[in-house]
What does this fold into?
Amino acid sequence: MSILKIARMGNPALRAKARRVEPSEIQRPGVQKFIDDVIETMNEYRGVGLAAPQVHESVRLIVVGIQRDGEDDEDEPKIEVLPLINPEITVLGSELVEGWEGCLSIPEVRGRVPRAAEIRLQALDRRGKRIDRTLQGFPARVVQHEADHLDGVLFIDRMSSFETLTYLDEYARYWTKD
It folds into this structure.
């Protein structure tokens, strides 16, 4: 596996609309290795999600780390990493929640972004099987953020105001609670 180079804001790769992955492509060794590399890259940079365009591949693939349901088990990680191919999001309800976001492609910057509180996620997993889940709260935010990358949208594009746009050290100093 490999750590991939992350595209930073300003790179045209982040503003292009990614192409769909054909189901017949998913089981190819190159695609499977790419999924592993994206996961390894996300983990290396301690992200909670990463989209293929962020590592210079214009395909509709994201990986997200989502809290596992159920009781804690010492033998199983608390975070489940899900590769999601061709994700489709349906907003459920009209509630928007503003929350802090950052991005590996915009390092050291945070801002408050309004997102749907609840979504329905439909995608293919790394074996080509359908995933259909309802997500709320932080997992819903992460999936929406990463899926935006597939359409060339950055979190700063979604901010309703730039008043909260801040560098990470200033965020830690002024915006977090003790």
In short: DSSP finds four helices and eight strands in the chain. The CA atoms of residues 26 and 128 lie 6 Å apart. The chain has a mean pLDDT of 94.
